Amino acid sequence: MASNFPDFVSRGYSLIRELGRNYGRVTYLAQRSTQLLVIKHFQFHHHDATWAGYASIEREVKVLQSLDHPGIPRYIASFATDDGFCLVQEYKQADSLATKRTFSPEEVKLIAMGLLEVLVYLQSRSPFICHRDIKPENVLVDRHLNVFLVDFGLAHLGIDDTSLGTVARGTLGFIAPEILFHRQVGLASDLYGLGATLICLITGIRTADIGNLVDENYRLNFQHLVPHLSLRWLEWLARLVEIKPQDRYPHAQAALAALAPIYVIRLPQVQLPQTELSFVAQKLGQRVTRVLAVHNHVPETILEGYLSLPQDDRSSWIKLHRTHFVGNQWLCRITVDTSMLLAGQTYDRTLTLHTNAHPAEQPVSLRITTAPFPVPRKQMPWLSLLLLFFFGATTTWLELAAWNTIIQKNGLVGLMIALSITTLVIALGIAVVLADRWLAASIRSLGRKLASSPKLRFPYPRLAEAAGLVLALVVAWPVANFGYLFREQAPAALAIVDALVFLTIFAVGTTIKNIGRCGFGWADATTTATLTLICGVCLGIASKTQHPWGWLGLIGAAIPLAGMLVHPALERLWRIRQYRRRHRHLVTS
User: Fold this and answer.
1) Among 17, 111, 227, 454, which one has the highest count of C-beta atoms within 10 angstroms of its own C-beta?
2) pLDDT class of 166 with cuts at 50, 70, 90
3) Taking residues 423-431, what's their average pLDDT?
4) What is the pLDDT at residue 494?
5) How is the beta sheet containing 147-149 ordered, strand by strand?
6) CA distance 347 to 124
C-alpha cells in the first residue's frame, strides 16, 4: 500500500502509514532520520476539497508557528506540493478520545485538567486564541494520561478576528451557541466544547450521538446517566455547557481553579437506624405498620433508589406504601396484613433496598409475629403442686409418727382420739381456707373502689395474700396448743405436727387459688389440688407403714391426677390442629 502514498523523499520525509483522512485532507505518519512526524496533506484535486479547507491549513500553520506548549504538538514545517499543501508536526504516540476507550471518573478529571491547562495557555496569548473545534477527535491522550490538543484549522485569534467570515464551522453539539449564531467569540467559548467532550467521556456517548442529550431547552441533559458521580462534579460540567457564555466560567483559569478541589466520585451512604423491623400483632387479623427510615449524610450527594419485595407469591401480605425515592431523608411505611397468616407463628422475610450508594443493594429483615392462637394456653402451677405433694407426704408421715405411741398404748380409744383431733384440725384448716377466700374478696372489692381514684394506687392482690397468710399463722397457734393437751411424750414438738396439718390444708386452698389464676375453673382446680394432696398422703402412709393399701391409694390417685395435668396441653393441641385445618388457605411459612 505504501506505493500509493505521495513521494516526499525529496523533502526528507518517508511515509510509514496513513493515520486518517477527512474532507480532502489525508494525515500520514512519516519519518525523518530517526524522528517520527505527522504530515497533514491537503489535496486540492479531491472532490471534498474547498477553499475554506485550504484556508484552515493556512490558519493552522499561522497559529502553530507561534505556540510552544507540551500539550500542543510542535510545528515543524510546511510546504506546497503539486496537488496541495502539507503541514508537518511533532508526532505524539497517543490515540484520540474518539477511539473507544474506558476512563475512570478520576482519569476523566485529569484529562479535563490537562485540557484546561492548554486552554489557559492559549487564552494567555495576545490576542487570545480560541480553538473553536474542541471535540473527542481533536483531543489525544496517551497511556500516561498526557493530553494533547490538535487541529487548529478553525482557531480564532482574539475578538476582532473576522478572517473566517460569517459561516459558522465546527461540529454540531460541540460548537458554542455564540459561534453557531455568529455572536462574539470570547474566553468562555472553548469551555463549551470542552464540557461536551467530557460529557461524551463520562456517558460513553459517541460524537455523532451527542444530539440525543439535547433537551427541549437546547441544554445537554446528561446527569441522569451518571448518578454515581458527585453533584459538584456534575454541576461543574453543566456550567461548562451553559447556553449563555456569561453563565459559564469566565475563562479556563477560573474553570481549572473550580475543578481542582472537586471529588468526582462521592457516593451517598445508606444509613439505616434499624436493619431489622419487628411486627408483633396483638389481635388476630390485625394490620401492623412500621416505618423504615433511610438517611444519607454524605454532603454533595443525593440518595435515590427503591425498596423491593421478595420475588415470590408468599409475601403478598406485605404492603409498601411508597417504594421509590429521591432524597437524603426517606420514610417508608410497611404494613403487614396478619389476616393472611396463621396465628401463633413467626415469619421472616427480607426486603431489598436498591440505591445508588455502595453497595448497591442492602437487605432489610422483617420479623412478623402473629397473635397467639385463639386457644388459651393453660399451664398448671407446678411449683405449688410439688410443694403441696411434699407437705402432704411429710405431714402424714410425721402425724403417723406422732400418734403411734398413743394408738399402741390405748388401742381403739387412742385411734379414735387421733382421728378426732386430726379431723378437727383439718376442719379448722378448711374453715380458714374459706375465711381466706372471703377476706380476699372483701379486700379486692375495697381495692376496686379505691382504684377509681387516679391519685390512689391500692395493691389489693398482695394485701389479700398477706392477710390470708397472717390468718393462717394466727390460727395455727391455738391449733398447736390444742394438740398439745393429748401428747404425753415430747408434747411441744409433736403439737407442732398438728400445726403442719393445719397449714397443709391451708396450702390446699392456696394451690386452688394458684390453679384458678392459670385459667382453670374452680372444680378443676379443687379436683387437681385434692388429688395432689391425696397422692402425698398415700405416699406418707405407704412409706411409714409399708401397707399395700397406701401404695394402691397412691396409684389410684396418681392416674386421674396425671389425666388432669396433661389434659390442658392435649386439648390445646387438638384445638390448634382444628384451627389449622380450617385455615389451610393461610400462609404457613
Assistant:
1) 111
2) very low
3) 60
4) 52
5) 95-96, 139-141, 147-149
6) 71
The reply to whether omega before 491 is within 30° of 0 (cis) is no
DSSP-derived 3-state class of residue 356: coil
Q: Rounded to whole angstroms, how far apart are CA atoms 441 and 432?
A: 14
Which strands form 276-280's sheet, in the order they lie side by side? 276-280, 361-369, 346-355, 304-308, 324-326
Tell me the pairing of strands 346-355 and 304-308.
antiparallel
Q: What is the pTM of this model?
A: 0.54
Domains of the chain and CATH, by start = 2-90 (3.30.200.20), 95-259 (1.10.510.10), 276-369 (2.60.40.10), 382-573 (no CATH)
Q: What is the pLDDT of residue 287?
A: 93
- What is the predicted pLDDT for the residue at 302? 83
Paired sense of beta strands 361-369 and 276-280, if any? parallel
Per-residue pLDDT tens over the stretch 276-298: 999 999 998 899 999 999 999 88
d(CA 120, CA 534): 107
Residue written as grid cell 411505611: 333
**How many C-alpha atoms does 212 have within 13 Å on its Cβ side?**
10
How many other CB atoms are found less than 10 A from the CB of residue 589?
A: 9
Nearest to 251 by CA among 263, 239, 234, 268: 239
Nearest CA to 28 out of 96, 89, 112, 108 is that of: 89
How much is the pLDDT for 265? 81
Read off the DSSP letter of residue 527: H
The cell 434499624 sits on which residue? 274
% of the chain beyond a pLDDT of 90: 32
Nearest-angstrom CA–CA distance, 196 and 205: 10
Rounded CA-CA distance 494/367 in Å is 61
Three-class DSSP category at 479: helix
- Residue 24: phi, psi to the nearest 5? 80, 5
What pLDDT is attached to residue 419? 56
Q: What is the pLDDT of residues 204-242, one digit of tens each?
A: 999 999 989 988 888 999 988 887 788 889 999 999 999
